[in-house]
């Protein structure tokens, strides 16, 4: 799994948990729709820390809370793709 895949998975999970639309997340985070689509569709190869900060802000959580999911355990990542 790539970091981008893990981030997209976490976004989907949080959107469901918080009963939030992707549009609302885009508005709350300041991430443009096209950029969000690239993340969610896997077209983005890397996600920057700045983007993670904006996502956490959009979900009204800390970065630590955003990363607090088993999807981010190092065993889940294909080290060759990092």
Please tally the β strands and state the result. Answer: 0
**Radius of gyration, rounded?**
12 Å
Number of helices: 5
Structural class: mainly alpha
Structure at a glance:
This protein is an all-alpha fold. Helix content is 56%, strand content 0%. The chain has a single domain, classed as 434 Repressor (Amino-terminal Domain), CATH 1.10.260.40.
Write the SSE topology.
Blueprint: H1 3-17, H2 22-29, H3 33-40, H4 49-58, H5 63-67
Helix pairs in contact: 2-4
Question: Could you please describe the fold and organization of this structure?
Answer:
The mean pLDDT is 92. 13% of the residues are buried. This protein has 82 residues and is mainly alpha-helical. The radius of gyration is 12 Å and the shape is globular. 56% of the residues lie in helices and 0% in strands. Helix 2 packs across helix 4 (49-58). The protein has a single domain (3-68), classed as 434 Repressor (Amino-terminal Domain) (Orthogonal Bundle), CATH 1.10.260. It has helices spanning 3-17, 22-29, 33-40, 49-58, 63-67. It contains five helices and no strands.
What descriptive keywords fit this protein?
mainly alpha; globular; 434 Repressor (Amino-terminal Domain)
């Amino acid at each position: 799994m790539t970091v981008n895949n893990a981030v997209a998975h976490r976004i989907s999970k949080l959107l469901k948990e918080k009963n939030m639309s992707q549009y609302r997340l885009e508005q709350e985070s300041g991430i443009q729709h096209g950029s969000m689509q690239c993340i969610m569709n896997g077209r983005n190869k890397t996600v920057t820390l700045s983007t993670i900060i904006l996502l956490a802000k959009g979900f009204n959580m800390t970065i630590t809370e955003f990363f607090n999911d088993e999807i981010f355990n190092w065993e889940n990542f294909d080290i060759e793709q990092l």
